[in-house]
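Forwarding the complex inputs:
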Amino acid sequence: MIEVTDLRKSYGRQGKTLAIDGISFTAGEGEIFGVIGPDGAGKSTLFRILASLILPDSGKALLNGHDVVNDYRKIRQIIGYMPERFSLYQDLSVEENLQFFATLFHTTIEENYHLISDIYRQIEPFKKRRAGALSGGMKQKLALSCALIHKPEILILDEPTTGVDPVSRKEFWDMLQRLKAQGIIILVSTAYMDEARQCSRIALMQGGSFIATDTPQGIIDSYREILWSVEGSRITALLYTLRQLPGVKSCFAFGERLHITVREELHLEELKQELVGQGFDDLRIAPIKPTIEDCFMAIDNQ
Amino acid sequence: MKQLIAFVEKEFYHIFRDNRTLLVILGMPVVQILLFGFAINMEVQDIRVALYTPTPDTFSQGIAEKIRQNSYFNFQGSMQTMQLVEESMRKGELDLAIVFPPHFHRDMTHSGEGKVQLITSSADPNRGSIAATYATAIISQYQMEQAGPTAIPFQITTENRMIYNPRMKSAYMFVPGIMGLVLMIISTIMTSVSIIREKERGTMEVLLASPLKQATMIVAKTIPYLIISLLNLISILLLSYFVLDVPIRGSLLLLTLLSLLYIFLSLSFGLTISTLVHKQINAVIVSAMTVMIPVLMLSGMIFPINNMPPALQYLSLVVPARWFIDAVRKVMIQGLGISMVWQEMLILTGMILLLLTVTILKTKKRLE
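Prediction (whole assembly, two chains):
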């Protein structure tokens, strides 16, 4: 059980930069709690506080009943922590890294092999290879193996899939689902909105606060805007034009498309004609269902 | 205990897999010893000397003959004009010129006073002054021989006996200095860099979030460099004993004990630096500034401390190498026992305690 109450943390002289601005949440057994937000939202700071690595200015955080400030020794025995950057020894082989972390946590690879076998089996053929020579996906699997080797009660993963190819990302999330089934509480952050659906519950984080906390479906259900997708040529010019229109509330680029939210009185055909009148062609406009990212944008805009 | 062993093992992997660094830390003492032992020679030899005698006479010829026979001098002959002498000096072909005035012999026998000028090239002041001293000695010796025992009723002869280093070998000076330099560089720089590397690469974050105790990590970080320093100590002593013929007159045990104390001090200093800076490059710069320069300049390794301005002499009191090099000279070269070096040992111990206290106070159990 993770219980966080009104956590606050600021950096710099006289606390000028507010990194964590009053966060409260709970996450229970068998749950993947995702913290979704852009870079600089304060995800890493939050996770470091929970991993007992930095002190909060105020507020309380308990991991399975242990306080992250006072019981830091106990915390460090029950958590598995994976920092944002790859933090294993590049000049040690895969096996040596795992062996080292097993010993550090008073255990052996053999004793807890069953815990990591799913993941580790995929990198085991390369166990003599230096960690620095692994691909991004394999590095993350090794890091996860090292974080899991001591059978942690709580797994804290800070952006584990950043810089990893889509196939490896999917595999990685499949593993997290299996770990969740074993009763491990998983706290994970990501900047990839599409990964949010994999979580039991998510918190959208911006500017040091959780701007919404719910199940992924709950977040989407609470979306109240009228959302259209716009495709066409000259996408950049289109974006700026749309933002000028009075009927359009917001317009963001989503890859090749633009997602716009509009006022109720604006009709689709009306918008199309307006745009054609401004010299845009090849236009395809259609209502769509919101994604987590749309929800994030909408909440963040308020 | 298992944690400690695993950590030390990991440290050795880091060291052995970084071939270039390994080569530097094991090769440095060998190169330094050979460099200082052979290439850098403070003994003054091959002094190129010329005479200027406008009116050659028996006296000047006698002196020329003396110089030709002396092995320290390389006699370049007599020169006919002062212009020639000055030009050779300027070209750097001469270290010393002995200038006789015109009618030297006549003036001396008439007035009983003869003046000879010694011109030395003091581009290298040490070499210049030693050359002048040698030449003065030769001239006065020749004068004594010429005058014979009857000239003055008594005669004082000085006989120099250089004890501890009768052949004036620079190696006697440098070996303790190199020990002070090499042991400190390796222990201090390598320890601080190896800890800061963990901070810089982010592995410290994982270590901190594990049950590993800070003390275990600190001990584990120092053990490999303690072993490497001991290997270096052995190679320095073997090379200086067998290759440079530097004796170990005192107790080898005491010398080892003294070196161990100094290695511990250097390791502690490395730990202290690692708690104060956050980047590898800063660690190297801080180590170099606080180790290399004071050891070279203020330890008495090259420049005698007694010749320094008082402010620098006081500054040298806090340079650990000063005390270590002093004590090593006493034990190694002079063959003195513990009764003569206990003060130095006490000072080194005090410095270790101070550094360890700072390290413990500054070591953090969190990231900030």
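The domain at 226-301 of chain A is CATH 3.30.70.2070 (Alpha-Beta Plaits).
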